[in-house]
Amino acid sequence: MTAQYCPLQRMSNSEAPKCQKFESSTIEKQSATARLLVHDGGMISLKSGTLILLLLCVCVSEALAASARSAQYNSGGRQVSYEVFGTTQTGPVLILLHGASGPGVPLYRAQAEYFAEHGYMVLFLHYFDVTGSGTPSDKNYVVWERAVSDLIAETRKNPAWADRKIGLIGFSLGASVVLATGSQNARVAAIVDWYGSLPDAFFERRKGMPPLLILHGQQDSIIPIVNAQQLVRLCEMEHYSCESHFYASEGHGFSGASLKDADKRTLEFFARKLK
Asked: How much is the CA Rg of the chain, to the nearest whole Å?
């Protein structure tokens, strides 16, 4: 699936970079490979061990899927699926949103499992269910934002989760959706944005923003760093609580030491805001 992102130029007089077309599945599968290698504690040569790596990805992906519980709720008259990771009876709830390639990319279930291992109940939302497509558009962003808000409301109605703090985390397109949700004063305690951007339609009608952590690569040609910089500037102008970190050598997606650092910063941020 090919998507297109246009960087925002609302608070800068510099010339806007051109919109970039990309094959999102390639980007996110590379990130998935990095996540699997980190969690398995060893590096495999992509030249000599490609088959082994592919088999490893399949096995780990299937194992992670098997460890989750499936559930559904209604949003806008459509059934939307999510997967539940974790068994904690008292910890905070994280709602995790995948990127443009959809929920099948192993990275996202690996991340859900990772956060569940650190004491969170993770709801991995299949938000494309509500639109039937993953095309970024003003119309779809509105529907996706509603789907996230409806899941937050569903969580509040669940007696086992009703009193727990809720955080949102999204990757790429999913990060843009959680930013859109946060801009509507969503009833969540914190948001983490991994290389996303606030959609134009929600910038214009923003109502606020929960405490926010922005993580972005300075070499990102898909959603250029200017988007993250402008979001930081918006936080300053509106006095939102906002933290950020930019990775000098990373593009769209993190790997190696940067991925480990992003996970660490995410956990530390949620620990301060949710626990």
From this structure: 18
Alpha-carbon separation of residue 24 from 233, 250, 252, 258 (angstroms): 27, 16, 10, 20
In degrees, rounded to 5, the angle at the alpha carbon of residue 46 between the alpha carbons of residues 43 and 48 is 100
Q: How many residues in total does the chain contain?
A: 275
Question: Most distant CA pair in the chain: distance in Å?
Answer: 52
Number of neighbouring beta carbons within 10 Å of residue 227? 25
Read off the pLDDT of residues 79-89 as tens digits, 9 standing for 90 and up. Answer: 999 999 998 88
104-120 pLDDT, tens per residue? 999 999 999 999 999 99
Question: Hey, what are 192's tokens?
Answer: 């983490």
Q: What is the pTM of this model?
A: 0.80
Helix, strand, or coil (residue 147): helix
Give the pairing type, strands 190-194 and 78-85: unpaired
Q: What's the one-letter identity of residue 43?
A: M
Distance CA 20, CA 90 (A): 43
pLDDT > 70 fraction of the chain, expressed in percent and rounded: 76
> What residue has token string 């095309």?
135
Q: Does residue 9 or residue 204 have the better pLDDT? A: 204
76: left (phi over 0), alpha (psi -120 to 50) or beta: left
State pLDDT tens for residues 131-186: 999 999 999 999 999 999 999 999 999 998 889 999 999 999 999 999 999 999 99
Q: How far apart are CA 116 and CA 91, in angstroms?
A: 10
CA nearest 61: which of 78, 46, 83, 43? 83
The owner of tokens 């992509």 is: 46
Q: Which residues contact 54 (CB under 8 A, 6 or more apart)?
A: none
Judge whether residue 71 has pLDDT over 70. yes
Residue 241 corresponds to which amino acid?
S
Architecture of domain 20-274: 3-Layer(aba) Sandwich (3.40)
